[in-house]
């Protein structure tokens, strides 16, 4: 990289982020301070905006850098997991969970998942448990965006700008944006960023292929350099690993606060149904080119420095500096769109499910808003500090968060579909699944008499799946043996469903 390229690269990245914040400032002028408008854009989103705000909210460091990095090291079959299996699974879950939540939320005015479940079972404790678990697993996924931004800047500038500076930059912008925008501003910029990133990643594919001598040349180079990339199965990509990854990611995404809240915001049922029907197509349009870039980089012999990501390095080698910076700027803006949505939803969980019920039930709207802003800043700063220690690769950190959220999904689905679900059953399912999963994340592997008691897999299947199964069995089993404590609330909970 020429020394003259650095100002161009940083200028492009900075300009893109400033434009995103300007959109947030405009949205601030048009957003009221009441919770339904600030957190849910008054439940008024149409198909295009709902589809792209959900899409852009998931365009994270895991997508743009973690996935291509994995494809660079293990081959393009990751496309089958994220691009195909996970896209279809999440669309199904959007229907099964999201549509039902939308019906109930529209009828009862819920803003958060915790509100919905707390009201269903007449339990502030359950409401706090759901919020606490969600905020706990949100922490590593916000940290993932900061790690991705730091590594992107290192790769783009060949180390001229340090890792911490990139992580600090996105932290500053995400705090400013969330304080300003509300969901309306987030949705607007998400739509712009989603369209932009789809366009720019395909432009990157065309540019790299052209600069490398054409698709035939790139394919021949990969076949010669990494022949195992062209064979299905084996190595990392065993059927069990692929299925486990697709299931935990799809089920985990369903409980992400920033995704789950979007289940409440559709203008009408037609908007919701069109959105989840189009979802798998949109996912394929992004994941296929992104992961192909990672695989092609390996075939073309691109060397990735330690602490950098493959996509910026590949683009630096095969495209002009301004274009590489534009792609990275768009990726960072997409990471910011994930982070600001996470922090916005996290602040609603903090204030509505923890602060107001347990600390200040009579707090004014202004006071609640300031608590939310302070919580956003504190949460973002804590995740920034944690990101400096880089506790794993982007894929490892992301997988851990997905698995943690996935432990919530089946108890929530049981509550949505089975009227005999009880408060005790929900506590058992959520606490049991989380305890099992946390033990496997934080404790070392344990064997007794040659048998694995605490391990990464059981019968070749990932422990996250077994935790999900445990949460399901406990929720149903304990509910079957206990009596519903709030029959009246359970009946009111289903009013919105019967009306449709």
TrEMBL record:
PROSITE patterns: NA_SOLUT_SYMP_3. One of its GO terms (molecular function) is symporter activity. InterPro entries: Na/Glc_symporter_sf, Na/solute_symporter, Sodium:Solute_Symporter. One of its GO terms (cellular component) is plasma membrane. It holds the Pfam family SSF. It is a multi-pass membrane protein. The chain crosses the membrane at residues 6-28, 40-66, 78-97, 126-143, 163-183, 195-216, 236-256, 276-298, 318-336, 370-389, 401-418, 425-443, 463-484. It is found in: Cell membrane. Keywords: Cell membrane, Ion transport, Membrane, Sodium, Sodium transport, Symport, Transmembrane, Transmembrane helix, Transport. The keyword Transport applies. One of its GO terms (biological process) is sodium ion transport. Gene3D superfamilies: Sodium/glucose cotransporter (1.20.1730.10). Belongs to the sodium:solute symporter (SSF) (TC 2.A.21) family. This is Sodium:solute symporter family protein. It comes from Halopelagius longus.
